[in-house]
Amino acid sequence: MKKDFYEILGISKGADAAEIKKAYRKSALKYHPDKNPGDKEAEEKFKLAAEAYEVLSDPAKRAKYDQYGHQQFTYKSKIDPGRNCQWSGEKSKGKT
Q: How many CA atoms within 13 Å lie on the side-chain side of 28?
């Protein structure tokens, strides 16, 4: 099971946009692949932070996440690698 996006960024569910951005930037700098070459764990944490930020920084996506959790946000590319990475809650702009 995926870790909670709020936990990934180390913020509370009541965090505002500025707190979310600050927490993401701190995490991104800490785990960036250029600062941790060859460290697969740091690379994974970097990707998780980016995913968490993408959802929590968008008010509509955040509301869906708060209501439905991770089920609403699964990359389609994991199902079909030929598709663009679109959230399952959005219309696909990739091939059909």
A: 11
The Cα 71–Cα 81 span in angstroms is 19
Pull the structure tokens for residue 71: 């089920």
Residue ranges of alpha helices (H) inside the chain are 5-9, 17-31, 40-56, 59-68
Cβ atoms of residues 7 and 69 within 8 Å:
no
Which strand (E) or helix (H) includes residue 67?
helix 59-68
What is the dotted CATH code of the domain comprising 5-68? Answer: 1.10.287.110
pTM of the complete model: 0.72
pLDDT (tens, 9 = 90+) of the chain, 96 residues, equals 578 999 999 999 999 999 999 999 999 999 999 999 999 999 999 999 999 999 999 999 999 999 988 776 655 434 344 444 444 444 444 444
